[in-house]
Amino acid sequence: MRSFISLILLLLCVTSAVLAEPMPESDIPYRYIYWDIKYDVHADGSFVETTKWSRTVLKENALERLKEASVTFSTSVAKGDILEAYTVKKSGQRIDAPQTSYQVNIHDGYKKASPLYSDHTTISVVFPDLAVGDTVVFSSRVTNSEGIFPNQFTTTHGFSPYMALDNASVEITAPEAMNLRTKSYFLDEQKPEKKDGKQVLRWSYKNAKPEKWTPADNGIYTIGEWPALYVSTFKSYQEIVDAYGARALPKAAVTERVKKLATEIAAGRKTPEQQARALYDWVAKNISYGGNGIGIGAVVPRDLSIVLDNKMGDCKDHATLLQALLAARDIESDQALINAGETYQLPDVPVVSSVNHVINYIPKMKLFLDATSSDTPFGMLPMHLGEKPVLLVSHYHEGMKTPSTAQYGHEQTMTTHIRIKSDGTAAGDAEWSLKGLPAIAARAAMRAVPSGQEELIAEKMLEAQGMHGKGSLKKDDPEALIDTYKLGLSFSLQDYVTVGSATGLLVKPVAASFFSIGHFMASAYLPEPKKPLVCSGGKSVEEYVLEFPDSVKIMAIPKDYKLSSALVDYAATYRQSKNTLTVRRELKDKTPTNICTPKEMAEYKKAILSIARDLKAQVLISD
User: Fold this and answer.
1) How far is the C-alpha of 360 from the C-alpha of 338, rounded, in Å?
2) CB within 10 Å: which end of the chain, N or C, has fewer?
3) Sign of CA dihedral 589, 592, 593, 596
4) How many Cα atoms occupy the beta-carbon half-sphere of 622 within 13 Å?
5) Average pLDDT of every residue of the chain
6) Angstrom distance (rounded) from CA 172 to CA 485
7) What is the pLDDT of residue 103?
8) What's the pLDDT at 10?
9) How high is the pLDDT of residue 20?
10) Does residue 433 contact residue 514 with C-beta atoms inside 8 Å?
């Protein structure tokens, strides 16, 4: 359920106000004295953002990360300045950062040519002679000549409950006629002011006693549980997709170049599904990722000629190119906006930051595709995009979600044959047959293995399980973008088992794999979560044949074990035939969704703990 997914997702840490435990004052690394944010918004969506904060260093281990501050902006649409930067020593002495402490990093084109992927400028400053007890003050201003969408303004601010903050404020000044929709959580909202055709909105927040984070606070961020502010002029998410589509969809026009390329890629494919797969595979494998940090490039795709010339683009570019190629083969598709992070719901106020990724949707096939993910096969979505709100750009309808990715047939079957010698060394082979997520992970890992390094990788796989020896790796060609994969490992082990006295032998994998039963045990000993967690299902089968030499006797073997619960089925059998032991274990995780409640995790943990005990059962042998 949670164990494998936790290896590939970073979960946002939030807390429950009821169960929260305050952080001891002695543990607080630094404290914000104030943090003020001001927006001066114009009717066309352009705005000036001014930020000023002050924080005091309380712990030695915070010094390194607090020595520097910076401001970043897109040079083509904004100007940035550092207004103030100084240190107030514990003694009260003020030390202004000298000009030599400033650094300007500019992304620009070569010899005055226009940059292709980023025009960001970062101005940073280092605070001199910073020590524990000192306070740093930093203020910056960014003047944006245009908004991310014409005549619209949207912003989001969140404050961590784990951060000491004496006073924070957010102030927005905008034309009185501008309809600003707002929603805040745990912030104090002041009465709006109106004067001289302007409206002024203010919020404040304090967190003098931050909460103490514990592993039980891991979980999915739920809107309304963290101090946050949402502000937007958009009336609905329909308006957001309309604003995006107005500039993005024309970029997906079918040009002669696109038509020719689509014909070449789809050659020999007869059905729409076969053609769609070929087109998706081509985009996913041939267009590498390159972000767009130029002006409003965050919400406007590049021209397809630029994407094709450079074989590079961001998510919008991948989605736009795939849409154009599909259209060239008369396959209707749509672009779709989604959150690629740890948010599984949309805030009530429609803010643009809640949908930060673009994928495709083929309505006749009822299929979502993410061509930006170069490892994900056609017909599947990356795990972190399952069961999330999704906004179709051309055919928007409220409440649509992506399907669950929890049961994509994630499976691993591992067979291991070990021939043990009289001196405790061993030789044998292992084979893995993978489907779904583990197959995708294995293919991605094997694509990264340099030619001629297979033996080194084999040794590392053995070492990961505490084995010492040599190995040779056999693997399918990893380049195909499909959801199955096979691996084989021949090995010789130096010290597999101790002989010469009675000993217990643990039956376990000899090499690291991608979906072992042991992976499912990772959550067994973690504290019970307070929050819902990202989760998934799958099946893992392990079969072992252990051949012992005549000089070694099998004295006792574990008992068969079987368990069946609402979320997990498990069965283990142990069979002895003379000096050969055959072990078969099968675990089926029946988790059907991508989000598991704390109650479900508690039930799951109970079952997993029982299975973990069986995995620790040993074979008793003697000479």
Assistant:
1) 10
2) C
3) negative
4) 4
5) 93
6) 54
7) 96
8) 25
9) 57
10) no
| DSSP of 414-479 | EEEEEEE-TTS-EEEEEEEEEESHHHHHHHHHHHTSPTT-HHHHHHHHHHTTT--EEEEEEE--TT
**DSSP character at residue 26:** G
Beta bridge partners of 199: 174, 194
CB neighbours of 493 closer than 8 A, spacing ≥ 6? 425, 426, 427, 462, 467, 468, 469, 510
In what helix (H) or strand (E) does residue 260 lie, and over which residues does it extend? helix 256-265
Check if the beta carbon of residue 446 is closer than 8 Å to that of residue 454: no
Helix (H, G, I), strand (E, B) or coil at 128: coil
Residue 308 to residue 449: CA distance in whole angstroms: 28
**Encoded tokens for 463:** 């070492």
Is pLDDT at 111 greater than 90 in this prediction?
Answer: no
Enter the tokens of residue 561.
């074990």
Q: Which position has the token pair 């997702």?
A: 9
Question: Which pTM was predicted?
Answer: 0.91
Closest C-alpha to 261, from 217, 200, 322, 202: 322
Cα(16)–Cα(126) distance, integer angstroms: 36
- 51 and 140 Cβ atoms separated by less than 8 Å: yes
Q: Within its chain, how far is the Cα of 369 from the centroid?
A: 17
Which segment of 365-369, 450-454, 479-483, 571-575 scores lowest on mean pLDDT? 450-454
386-410: pLDDT as tens digits? 999 999 999 999 999 999 999 889 9
How many CB atoms are located within 10 Å of the residue 19 CB? 12
Which of 388, 321, 309, 328 lies closest to 360 in space, CA to CA?
A: 321
User: DSSP state, 512?
Assistant: -
Strand partners, 392: 336
Question: Is residue 25 helix, strand or coil?
Answer: helix
What is the rounded average pLDDT of the residues 13-23? 46
Name the burial class of residue 525, with classes exposed (0-12), middle (13-18) and buried (19+) by CB atoms within 10 angstroms of its CB.
exposed
Q: Are the C-beta atoms of residues 418 and 410 closer than 8 Å to each other? A: no
Distance CA 457, CA 474 (A): 11
